[in-house]
Amino acid sequence: MGPNQGFGGTLCMIFLIALFASGSGENDRDFKMCGTWCHGNGLLTLAHDLKRGCGTITISANESSLSIRGEITAQCENSSVIKLGPSPEARESPFCVYWEPLLDQLWVEVNGQNHTLCWPSGLQENCCTDLSQGGNKGTAIYGILNATQRDDILSYQRRPAYEFFGGIVNCKNVFCDEASQGSGDKVNMIEETVMRSKVLGNVVLPCALSSVVEMKEGFQGYNIILPVPRGVPPQMIPSVHLPSCLKPPEKQKVKVVCTYFKIQYLIPGEF
Ligand SMILES: *[C@@H]1O[C@H](CO)[C@@H](O)[C@H](O)[C@H]1NC(C)=O
Ligand SMILES: *[C@@H]1O[C@H](CO)[C@@H](O)[C@H](O)[C@H]1NC(C)=O
Ligand SMILES: *[C@@H]1O[C@H](CO)[C@@H](O)[C@H](O)[C@H]1NC(C)=O
Ligand SMILES: *[C@@H]1O[C@H](CO)[C@@H](O)[C@H](O)[C@H]1NC(C)=O
C-alpha cells in the first residue's frame, strides 16, 4: 500500500471485529439472469467455458445442455461439463446464473442446486460488470423460457440463447460508493464482503482496511497490525490483540476480520 491510499491523515478511529459472515446482498454491479430451461427427457448437463476478459457472456440451452460461455472473469478460467442427472418429469428446470464481479465469483442454480463455476478469489480492482443484453436470437423448441435479468422480464418466448456485454469498472471504488450511499448497515456490508472474498491477511479498499485472521485449534492469540503508509507515527498505527479466548471452543476454525474505516464513508452515530 502506498501513501496515495490516503489513510495517513484521516486514519479512522472506528474499529470492529466480526466473527462470522452470512448472506449475500444484491448490488448494482452484480448480475442475475434467471429463466426456465425447457429440455428433453434424457440426461442433462451444465456446460461451461469461462475465460478472462471483458466481452460477451452467452447463456444458451438446448435439449440436453445448459451452457454458459464467454469472457467476463478477472482471474477465473474454467471449462467443463457437469452431469446434472435425469430430467425432471415436467421437462422444465428453473435456473439462475449469478455473477459477482467484485469477488470474481460465478455460480449457477439449476433445480434448486447451486454449482459454483468460479470461486471467490479476493476483491478485484478492475472487473467486468453492468452486463447489458445483446442479441437474443429467434425461438426454439428447446431453450430458455421467461428469461429475467435482475427480476425484469427479458422475454416470455422460448429462446435458444441470450447474450450479454460487459464493461470494465473499478469495482473497489464502486463498492465503496455503494457502501457509503446504501441505506443498510455499511459496516456489515463491508465486513461480509471481505469475509466472502475468502482472502486471509490484509485487504485494502478505498474506504477501509481489513485484516482477516483464521483462528484454528490451539489458537494462541495474535496481534493484528494493519499496514499504514510510511511516516505514520507509531502511536497512530492501528493494532489490536486477539486473545486466545476469542476462538469459540466448539468450532475448529473461525475467521475474524478487523476493519478500519475511513471516517467519511460512514455516518457517525449509525452504529
Ligand atoms: C447442446 O449444447 C451443448 C453445449 O453447448 C452441445 O455440446 C451439444 O452438442 C448441443 N446438443 C444439441 C442436441 O444440439
Ligand atoms: C443458491 O444461490 C442463491 C443466490 O446466492 C441463493 O439465494 C440460494 O439460496 C442458493 N440455493 C441453495 C440451494 O443453496
Ligand atoms: C471449475 O468448475 C467446477 C465445476 O465444473 C468446480 O468444481 C471447480 O471448483 C471450478 N474451478 C475453479 C478454479 O473455480
Ligand atoms: C412464463 O410466464 C407466463 C406469463 O407470466 C406464465 O403464465 C407461465 O406460467 C410462465 N411459465 C413458466 C414455466 O415459468
From TrEMBL:
<keyword id="KW-1133">Transmembrane helix</keyword>
<protein>
    <submittedName>
        <fullName>Uncharacterized protein</fullName>
    </submittedName>
</protein>
<keyword id="KW-0812">Transmembrane</keyword>
<keyword id="KW-0472">Membrane</keyword>
<feature type="transmembrane region" description="Helical">
    <location>
        <begin position="6"/>
        <end position="23"/>
    </location>
</feature>
